[in-house]
Amino acid sequence: MNYLGTRLLLLAAPGLLATSALANYSPTDWQAYRLDSESSRQLSDRITEVNYELSARNDNAPYQQLRVYRRFDWSGANLTALAEQQCGKPQLKIEQGWQIRYLLCEQVVPVGKAIPASSYDFGYGMKQGRWEPLTGTPTAPRQDRLSLAERIILSHSEQELDRCKLNAQGRCNEQVWQYQPQNWQQLNVLEESPNERNGRLEQIFFRLQPVAGSQAARQVKELHVWRQYNWQLDQAKTQQECDEPQTRQEGDKTISYRVCRQTLPAGSKVQVVLKDSGYQYPVGSSEWQTLPETDEWQESRVLNRPIVLASKEEQIDCRRADGRACSEPEQPSTDLLDADAAKIVQDASGQPAPVWQENYGHDDTKLLAVSRGIQSLLAANQPAHPAMKLLLEYVRAHNYHNYGKHKEDGPAAAEALAKALTALGAHPRLYPKQVSDEVGAVMGAWSIALHGQFKSPAVQSRFGTLLGQFNQMLAYSTQHAREINGQHAWATGLFDLLNFLDFASDYSDAFAADFRQQDAELRKQLHALGMSELSLWQERDGPDLFLLSNVLDAYTRLYRVARYTRPDESEGYRKLLDDSVIALIRHHDLIPGGQQSPALLEDMSLTLSTYYLTYTDRTSEACISGDFAGLCTPIRVENVLPFEHTCSPTLRLRAQELSQDQANGICRELGAEERQFHQQMETGWQPVADDNNEVLELVIFNSSADWKRYGGALFGGVSTDNGGIYIEGDPARPGNQARFFAYEAEWKRPAFQVWNLRHEYVHYLDGRFNQYGSFGHYPLNRTTWWSEGLAEFIAHGQCFARGMDNVSDRPAAERPSLADILHLDYDKGGDMVYSWSYTVHRFLNETGRGASWLAMAQALRNPDKQQAMNAFEAELDQLIASDSEAYQSWLSRDLLPWWEANKESDECKANDSSH
């Protein structure tokens, strides 16, 4: 038996423990000491005791010296699994007419090999010159590893390299040798050079020389082999390790961050695929030759150190020098503004911006202050000043809140604003020779500010002038197409600018004369914009047709105005638009078989067949005959979504491609969720009054790309810039069809998952059994938290990982109040809408406030809107008045500690909170 020594292994040391003499001993205490000496003795065959002598690093340590005895029990170690084969030089022997070349080999556990063991510590500490037992020792047994000081030989074996039949002269006949990756008995390794990347072995270069006298030596002089390692790593087995938080300065910003790594821990069993390639130098040749093609093979490995799969920096917090969060926009200078306008600029920045609060006070006084601010910036020749966009942002918020209440602005305030917006559109510095992002942002904000003012007599009297300014902005954009193409600020600005016609067309009676007078110039500028390079908008992944699609949308709005105001001319007018559209798509080679990518050609065909033709009173069948014949392809629902399946009398599926097993799985999952919903909400399975949405149609596309490509085209322009959507329609209308649009999460394949499946299905259940009327029947700044938080709460229960991570990452000082959550709207951002709303539903259900929760649901079922909102808001007001502090206390004391303790549990890790 070989006797063992040992060496000190690396100990985890997350931080110094309290240095109180009464604290139980822990190996982590060693940070306060330095190792002076180490010795070991063998107590039995597989029990080793190591004695460590340590002395204090400073006077703060509880003991001057430590004497620690660590006893390792490695009797359960499987040495065979840890052994390696070691062989000597080739030898020859003759047996029964055969010459045999062989190796003598040993199965050896080599020196330094870490073997599994159970260990515990006991020992003594010296205090004031006296030794005393360490408190808490002997420690509880723990899993450990022991490093071998001497090798252990487990067995001997003899390996045959080759043999040959001896002839009459007692010699071997010549045999052919060929390189085999897993048979190196005839080769010696002269050089071995591993190459690692991201902490894992990627390749090893070997320089090999045949064993003297072997068959290989008779055929090659030397070989160069590159062995490639392709690790098959299971992402599900990874663990996250994060460093302690750090801070750094970036300019005037203080950034708190930590570095986190996704690792496969040491001891993990992994598979690796190996492949050899290289060159050999044959005997008698003067040139290297490529090795014959070899097959791949697979091996199982146990990691002796962690492998880092990914490493990223997570930002915890970011603060400017003034203490404001970096996420808040830079505050522009307000030196040119009066105090009231400056205050509005300040309140229009940040997340969430105070101007979007309903109680901010969207009145004539503030509108007059904004108008003065706009005029002040124009007087200073700064129409693209950063404060201008924020002043216009207030107008957008003002329009939003007042439009919902059908509140009219006072004549003086409306006149001042109309005058200011007209002056802004006319200012020559808004059209500088040197284009800038700020100009694009202000043009878009100008358009949005006008959207809610088209009903104002002050704007209506100036609409012809404003329409001319709109044309001027289009011409400016076309002139600077090369500079602005692909710029994010201009993508947003142009989208918002083109929506000018979308909203203005709703007032075709009031604007009929102006539209007619400006029509030729409008079509001219839209056509020029569409002919410019902006129609092939430069995205990171290639060109996009978003601007060209918006030009076609603008054409459909002009057609609608012409059809309503001069119906006798609508046919001829549509022909003018058609000619322009055909010229645009031919100019950009977007016709079938054109030089653009297949994806762009299909996008163009879809836009024509299902949008432009539809909104100019035709169907996609116009792609077959007439002016558009051959320029697009008719698209039909039954061709794109051929799969149909009925789950139950209340749910049917329609999909691009599903297996029957997948469809049955969806039916089971949603059926279970439906039963859970009715049980928790105590609905009695009774729908609200006037709800005819008896059957939900669930439409499933193959991928997010297919959803974006076909969703709006097949279903009347439904928005596809989302992860799926529930469209309730008008449930009171007989024959109304509620639809839930979803798509398969293609990035999770080969696993099958429909994205947001459970979340969106709750919206259907909530709309049919809780909330009377259609979407928006109740004010969204009262019911958004209810709808979205309920969907997350029912769908994911306690283990809502994405939401809980968002909540736990928010510093305590920045957590929203209960009132903020109960009064939020969709523009407050995803964290507020989904994550924080979820916490309120959980708060009500986990703290004995379930009666209030059910009372809100009952209130929303009332067909009388005024009574419903009175009862619902009474519950909200009571919660805010009585439970705001309790909610914050529950967050800190119960919810966040619970999440920290449970987020790595099997239950929570198995729950996909994006499902």
Straight-line N-to-C gap: 59 Å
Please summarize the sheet with the most strands. Answer: 6 strands, antiparallel
Q: What is the number of helices? A: 25
Note the overall shape: globular
Q: What proportion of the residues form beta strands (DSSP E)?
A: 15-25%
Average predicted local confidence, pLDDT: 87
Radius of gyration, in Å, reads 38 Å
Helical percent range? Answer: 25-40%
Structural class: alpha+beta
Can you tell me the residue ranges where pLDDT is under 50 for at least 5 consecutive residues?
1-21
Would you count the extended β strands for me?
27
EC number: 3.4.24.3
InterPro entries: Peptidase_M9A/M9B (IPR002169)
GO molecular function, one term: metalloendopeptidase activity
Pfam family, one: Peptidase_M9
Give short descriptive properties of this protein:
915 residues, alpha+beta, 6-stranded antiparallel β-sheet, 25 helices, 27 strands, 38% helix, 23% strand, globular, disordered N terminus, protease, zinc, secreted, signal, metalloprotease
